[in-house]
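Reopening this ticket.

The earlier resolution said the output was attached, but the attachment link was broken on my side. Pasting everything inline this time so it's all in one place.
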Amino acid sequence: MTIQNPDRQEIGEILKKAKTIAVVGLSDQPDRTSYSVAKAMQEAGYDIIPVNPTVDEVLGVKAVPSLKAIQEHVDIVNIFRRPEHLPELAKEFDEIDADVFWAQLGIENQEAYDFLTEKGYTVIMNRCIKVEHAMLG
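Inline output:
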């Protein structure tokens, strides 16, 4: 099955409803894309959960080492990792209380997509959450 994202209207609804975004691979380096995107989403009112075992905190929020370490409900898991890491992350995503699996611009993996869509999850790949949010107007 080819990777097919929800249409722009559905993506807009997802972003309007969401409150908490877990950001996998969030760097504490301000010059990194993950940092600037997460900062923009935090400034837009979303709660950000940094998911990175190599940092203590990012954007004033304590980081967790993995998705499984998150104790609360997550609306969107936003991923900044290379495509080969997506199948493993998809399995971890399936084990936590989360709604949408979102791989950032330039990141997609057919195996992860098939695994999650067969289980009924909403999957977005190769789209920038910051750009999609800005399009809400």
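Reporter confirms the inline version is readable. Helices lie at 8-17, 33-43, 86-94, 110-118, 129-134. Strands lie at 20-24, 47-51, 57-58, 61-62, 74-79, 98-103, 122-124.
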